[in-house]
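Design job #97: recover the sequence.
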């Protein structure tokens, strides 16, 4: 083994709001308040990935590497790079299961960032993105990037393409925050995807395209009026809202307290709202109260949107 090659590495990857309402499967942003941490230790068995331990907010996850998001992401890396060693993996979950906050993506991203640090020649992030996508697919049954890309790169990230993804970090207007309210219930991403219609009206597609284009333009031009008008998911939210008790009143609470927009975070049940900073605490309180009226307690955060992406956290990265 050459000098300087690491024996172990630990990485943290942040939670994320997937879709951001108008960008189904292609747009997402970081939520710095919580995330997953993965430690990878080099072992002598070539190509063998073993999940040794899962601790934290979720422990009931598959230990078999092929069925675990972190394990599958590392297997993809190991196979593609034909690595000459094996990896023991410890996962510390900080993101609740089935919350819509990108928990499976964060574990996959933290795993590949830690695994990458053990390579003699670490790979660029775009490669890691592809391996993490394979991990995410284990949990949700499909390959999508809206949680993976921001968890890896940080901030608000748009991804175009699946086989050859291109990512772009989008600027966020100054002083805009994200209010994140996670009601205490579990929602399966697979199920929330299964219920979606495969055919949609052309008029709705046109409307959604206009909204996504308007939203991105508003980000680049600091135009909060345009953002408010464009911040409306007409494709997915109408189909999924029934899965979240009280969603309509939670959204109404956010909007009537000054939110720029409010929708479902990823596949839900977390609901998020973007707002100018002075309104954020009032919006959060109103959303929490609206969930309570529907019998749901929640965890809640006000987060910056342009957070850092995944990084090594064991002091030597
Ligand atoms: N874009 C995905 C969805 C995020 O909404 O189904 C969940 O992983």
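Job complete. Output follows.
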């Amino acid at each position: 083994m050459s000098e300087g090659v690491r024996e172990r590495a630990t990485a943290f990857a942040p939670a994320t709001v997937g879709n951001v309402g108008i960008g189904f499967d292609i747009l997402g942003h970081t939520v710095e308040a919580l995330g997953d941490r993965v430690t990878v230790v080099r072992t002598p068995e070539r190509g063998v990935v073993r999940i040794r331990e899962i601790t934290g907010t979720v422990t009931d996850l598959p230990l078999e590497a092929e069925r675990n998001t972190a394990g599958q992401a590392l297997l993809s890396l190991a196979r593609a790079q034909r690595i000459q060693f094996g990896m023991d993996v410890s996962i510390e979950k900080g993101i609740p299961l089935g919350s819509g906050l990108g928990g499976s993506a964060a574990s996959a991203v933290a795993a590949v960032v830690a695994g990458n640090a053990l390579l003699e020649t670490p790979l660029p992030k775009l490669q890691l993105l592809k391996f993490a996508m394979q991990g995410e697919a284990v949990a949700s049954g499909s390959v999508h990037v809206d949680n993976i890309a921001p968890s890896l790169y940080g901030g608000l990230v748009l991804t175009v393409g699946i086989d050859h993804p291109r990512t772009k970090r989008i600027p966020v207007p100054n002083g805009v925050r994200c209010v994140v309210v996670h009601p205490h219930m579990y929602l399966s991403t697979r199920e929330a995807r299964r219920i979606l219609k495969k055919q949609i009206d052309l008029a709705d597609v046109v409307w959604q395209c206009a909204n996504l284009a308007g939203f991105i333009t508003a980000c680049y031009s600091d135009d909060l009026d345009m953002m408010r008008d464009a911040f409306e998911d007409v494709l997915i939210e109408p189909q999924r809202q029934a899965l979240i008790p009280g969603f309509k009143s939670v959204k109404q609470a956010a909007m009537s307290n000054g939110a720029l927009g409010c929708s479902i975070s990823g596949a839900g049940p977390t609901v998020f709202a973007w707002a100018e900073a002075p309104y954020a605490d009032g919006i959060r309180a109103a959303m929490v109260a609206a969930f309570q009226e529907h019998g749901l307690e929640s965890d809640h955060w006000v987060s910056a949107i342009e957070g850092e992406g995944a990084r090594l956290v064991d002091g030597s990265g």
